[in-house]
Amino acid sequence: MKTLFLKDMRYRQTRVVLTALSITVLISLILLLGGIMNGMRIQARQYVESTGADIWISAEGSGGAFIGFSMVVEEYMAFLNSARGLTPNSASPLVFAQARPTVRGKSTKAIVVGYKLGQLGGPKQVIAGEGKMFTPSNFEDYRPEDPVPYEVVVDEKMGLEIGEQITLGNEKVKVVGKAESRMFVLDTPLLFMDVRIAQKLLLGNTPHVNMMIAKTDKNEQPGQVSAGLDALETIEARTLKQTLGDIIAYYVDEPMKAVQFLRVMLWLVAGTLIGMITYVTMLEKTQEIGVLKAIGGSNNYVMGLILKQVVLISAVGVILGLILSYVFAAAAPIFVAIHFVESIIVACISFVVCCGSGYLAARKAITVDPMIAFRGEI
Amino acid sequence: MAAIVEGIGLTKRFGTGDATVVAVDAVDIRIEESELVMLMGDSGCGKTTLISLLGCILTPDDGELRIDGEPIDPVNQDLSVVRHEKIGFVFQLFHLLPYLTALENVMVAMDIARTKTDEAESRATELLTQVGLIDRLHHRPAQLSGGEKQRVSFARALANRPKIIFADEPTANLDSRQSDNLMNLIQELRREYQTTIAIVTHHEGLKENADRVIQMKDGRIVPA
Ligand SMILES: Nc1ncnc2c1ncn2[C@@H]1O[C@H](COP(=O)(O)OP(=O)(O)OP(=O)(O)O)[C@@H](O)[C@H]1O
Ligand SMILES: [Mg+2]
Predict the structure, then answer these.
(1) Which of A65, A209, B10, B97 has the fewest Cβ atoms within 10 angstroms?
(2) Which residues of B touch A10 (CB under 8 A)?
(3) How crowded is the C-beta side of B13, counted as CA atoms within 13 Å?
(4) Which of the listed residues A211, A226, A253 is the one where a domain comes to its end?
(5) A306 and A243 in a common domain
(6) CB contact burial B22-50 (16+ within 10 A = b; e otherwise)
(7) B117 contacts in chain A (CB < 8 Å)
(8) Is the separation of the CB atoms in A293 and A370 below 8 Å?
(9) DSSP state of A208
């Protein structure tokens, strides 16, 4: 009778369903937390990679672009544009600053990216049919009063209309175009504007930028070029790879350590849960197990009955959890990227954890003395 | 006649030190093929312990046991195999599985013995028909009367064609009419299958059905 264990499960269906659902919720949580971190990693990379820069220069002691407070004097531009190993004139000034613009009356989080149009650091064009790029200033023309109109190109996902105004500092800035979405960590939209305007609105109109970025010559090793520049006493230089490492560590891995820990804890919870429910269920069934053993069922026979149930409940719970995590991810208010392969691995581990603890509980349960069949209720 | 069950010097102690109880004390017992024996005696005299020893559920502290002529070695032998191959049990409290129908409860015993499902189903149907439950095949234990439950138990005990059935106070939870019906059924089944049956009972009235009565007192067998 291959379906014996199913009949037992149907008899206790409420508990079976609740157990499977608990596992479902736990697994989808584990996957979602992983998906959130993945999403953050993707968002941490995508802007940096989109710039096309190979070398990132920040102020000495800042710990690297994006990490600490960094102000670099503009004068370095001239030096970088002729520095050995860098593509001539590829050096680009960059303002990258967290801001709280007021959008449609609401204070919103955003990051202002100020760059020189046509240089590294931001998009060269807007999405076709979605407005135009901001009016560029002449960067080399040192600090004229109000060089160009205050214009901004926004992330397409911000939902702003061309012509709309947002407030940044005390100034009104006009939305003139939409750029392909490249949200930063935790769905922070980027606002692209001329570097001079960004300096004026966010850096007190000083002749500084937060960082400078450049390309290396084709036949140069970015690592060597970067090390050469880093040897200078007033700046720090990083390769793209180092910058990505820094940014992911700083924005994702370190702050999310607790979440990682939580994920492991959730596995423990899932394992303990199924172990506990299996054990409690088996305690209730002591009499039944005793009878099965008394009428000649071996330990393996009884174990088989219990394990089939554990495996089925775990499998259903894990598979539903896998499906549910994708549903949750789609509905989540932030960017969640669940890796398919990773989620399969997580699901497999969860399945093993659940079955393992079910097995341990079952092993305890089958030690019932078959004499219980004669003694009746104790 | 051949002995189906033979115990020599069977002893079972429970507890240690001052609290030691000798539940079965050096018992020699022989039950012949097709015999119907009744085991009687005061409460606590060791009847259940004795049939548990004979049924290979308990292992003796001392003594030897042969079933169907073969010596039982509790250390090196898987007793669960002996139990489902050679022995059938009927319990005072029926002990049917609540989530299974009468039919399935009988089939479980055969499932344990690895009988194919369709074969098990037809045999279970046949046995339940024989015990008068043809129209109760798909009832759960909760939907059956005490007497019906005990008849399912007997059908289950017979499922694997055992050499001997041990029944521990099978009528204790039945009224006298149900109990008489059950005894009639047992007689009928015995005629049909020639199964050896050992019944533990307190009912003096059942004695007349037995080929032999074994009287116990303080863990020993005494003259009836
Ligand atoms: N697991 C045990 N631990 C300690 N003592 C036990 C145990 N099982 C049985 N005994 C003792 O062994 C003795 C015999 O018990 P047993 O159950 O065999 O008696 P019985 O003749 O079947 O009694 P009853 O007619 O009341 O069912 C009793 O004194 C009982 O208390
Ligand atoms: Mg007893």
Answers:
(1) B97
(2) 99
(3) 10
(4) A253
(5) no
(6) bbbbebebebeebbbbbbbbeeebbbbbb
(7) 1-2
(8) yes
(9) E
Handedness of CA A213, A218, A221, A224 (dihedral sign): negative
Q: What is the pLDDT of residue A345?
A: 92
Q: Which of A140-144, A309-313, B97-101, B107-111 has the lowest mean pLDDT?
A: A140-144
Q: Same domain, yes or no, for A211 and A316?
A: no
pLDDT digits (tens, 9 = 90+) for B158-182: 999 999 999 999 998 889 899 999 9
* A315 alpha carbon, distance to own chain's centre: 27
**Residue for token pair 């289950």:** B156
Same domain, A182 and A197: yes
How distant, in Å, are the alpha carbons of A372, B7, B16, B45 from that of B22?
Answer: 19, 16, 10, 10
Task: Write out chain B residues lying below 8 Å of A286, CB-based.
Answer: none
Nearest CA in chain A to B47: A374
Beta bridge partners of A98: A111
Domain region containing A269: 4-43+255-374
Question: Which residue among B47, B216, B221 has the greatest number of ligand 1 atoms within 8 angstroms of its CB, and so is best to mutate?
Answer: B47
Q: Chain A within 8 Å of B84 (Cβ-Cβ)?
A: yes
Q: What is the pLDDT of residue A147?
A: 66
> Could you give the residue ranges of the DSSP H alpha helices within A1-12?
4-11
Q: Measured in angstroms, how far is the CA atom of residue B23 from the centroid of ligand 2?
A: 11
- Residue (of B169, B163, B214, B210) closest to B187 by Cα position: B210
Domains and CATH numbers, chain B: 3-222 (3.40.50.300)
Query: Which ligand is closest to the CA of B167, given by its number?
Result: 2
Q: How many angstroms separate the CA atoms of B121 and B108, rounded?
A: 10
Percent of chain B with pLDDT over 90: 85
ipTM of the prediction: 0.95
8 Å CB contact of B108 and A298: no
Residues A333, A228: one domain? no
How many beta carbons lie within 10 A of that of residue B218, not counting itself?
13
